[in-house]
Design brief:
Layout (H helix, E strand, L loop, with lengths): L17 E11 L5 E8 L2 E13 L4 E10 L12 E5 L5 E2 L7 E10 L3 E12 L3 E11 L2
């Protein structure tokens, strides 16, 4: 197994290869899944993780927030290990101190062709706007 014996990055296609994508202030539409970030995995075995922070305005009332790792653009995926879901009692949380963030994964992808993987976010809210920021990461495990 080829890896790297020092503090540099593993070469593409080798054990330990690392991919990452991040985006900031992606505008959300209530109850609509949005892509926050994406990466393209090459054939092999990968562990993928992601994290999203929801950024509502002070007047926004949020009832639900969800994050997932999906192979379908702008589609929430409920595969075990690849999603995080929060819902409060239905009265909503007002303001910008909403959720510190959601972390999902690791979710395993064992693939034989290039595959785009999306970090998605979904929020139900009213009374203001909301953005999301997030990072998706993948590490080749074999």
């Amino acid at each position: 197994i080829k890896g790297t014996p020092t503090d540099n990055d593993a070469d593409a296609g080798h054990y330990g290869e690392f991919l990452e994508d991040a985006n900031f202030t992606v505008p959300l539409t209530t109850a609509t899944t949005a892509n926050i970030a994406d990466i393209t995995l090459t054939p092999g075995d990968w562990d993928v993780t992601g994290s999203v922070v929801f950024l509502p305005e002070n007047t926004t009332v949020t009832v639900q927030a969800a994050v997932s790792i999906s192979t379908t653009s702008a589609t929430h995926d409920f595969t075990i290990g690849g999603y995080a879901y929060t819902i409060n009692d239905g009265t909503g949380i007002t303001g910008s101190t909403l959720f510190g963030g959601h972390t999902v994964g690791p979710r395993r992808f064992s693939i034989n062709a290039n595959t785009t993987v999306y970090l998605t976010a979904l929020a139900a809210f009213s009374g203001g706007d909301m953005d999301a920021s997030g990072t998706i990461r993948a590490r080749r495990v074999r």
